[in-house]
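Residues and backbone
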Amino acid sequence: MKFDIVIIGGGAAGFYTAIHVAEANPDLRVAILERGKEVLSKVKISGGGRCNVTHAVFDPKELTSSYPRGEKELLGPFHTYASGDTVAFFEERGIALKIEEDGRMFPETDSSQTIIDCFTAETERLGIKVFTKSAVTNIFKETIDTEDYWQIKTSDENISYCTKYIVMATGSNPKIWNLLSKLGHTITPPVPSLFTFNIKDDRIKDIPGLSTEATITVLQDRKSAKRNSASEGNLFSEGPLLITHWGMSGPAILKLSAWGARVFQECKYQFKIKINWLPEHTKETLLEFFLASKDTEKKTVLNTRVLAIPKRLWERLVSASSIENTTTWAEVTKKQLDKLATQITEGVFQVDGKSTFKEEFVTAGGVQLKELHFKTYESRILPNLYFAGEILNIDAVTGGFNFQSAWTGGYMAAQGITNNITENKLKTVS
């Protein structure tokens, strides 16, 4: 089958690319190939089924700061197409988005089906063909009547596709990465990016669901710190931390997992973190506060929370400081209070493995960014081959940023193809 443009991958980036390229070029034949039985499966489960469409950060420079891989490269594209443009895209199609307190943006319906229905309706309106169960097995160039075309072979040996332009939007697909590698592209090996920390520790045992603000610092040995300092920076995070049945999660942990993806993979997810449960305090200021409390508090240390720290967590940290349940403030020693101040502001926890964050599995890795023209998202190695989405070595912290990268890439690729077509027409006329 012959098409003018074939998008490989029926996910967020693939559909967004197809819609924009078909709108700009209504006379062209556009197709989407999806290897699975259904399209947009990741959109469906994202955000707990609500679809975290984007994030309410509208300054391009600030927006790039949420991308451990791709921060520098995305600045230009975000000046062209960013969060505000995404909001406008959906509003133009009758879908209002809402901003939650943490900046995440969802459809007002709180249903990912709203986004899926929007995309499928647009593909029907624009005449875009969607083929499921079409796993791509090979891609190669072939010259027909002096012009180069892409030939696409699929799992159905009876069906192949011929096209002038290809957009690769397959996400983290090792088979596609292998094909691209054979064609000359360099692939950065993928590692998990968004995950929670497995921690077994009496200080957080049996208190799942507890959430509080905290700062977290990864304690690296000198060798790993030296090796990773240039690429990963200081592994530090702050924000809401959630205690779970298996350890720790929440935005602060997930942010760390993204920025330290390769560091943690190299150490096989065995490392230590230091937590300050009261970010406004240091050990010294907290100890000073505790010593002053000895003169004013009359009850037991356990039953007197002199700080804004969750009750169950306070009880665990008091116990970990060798302070008996019956010890009063008058009786507690400076040594014990020093230990308590350490537990609260410099508590060390051993991480022993990771767990996938809900169903939202994100990877760090993919096509190396130096092999891409970021003004068009076209390959520097293979003309008329474009990219969008997680197939690239771009990933972000949680909060709608990974989708925004997909929307931006899809738009830029569509614009790149449109400009390419226009230039070729002008050459033909001249």
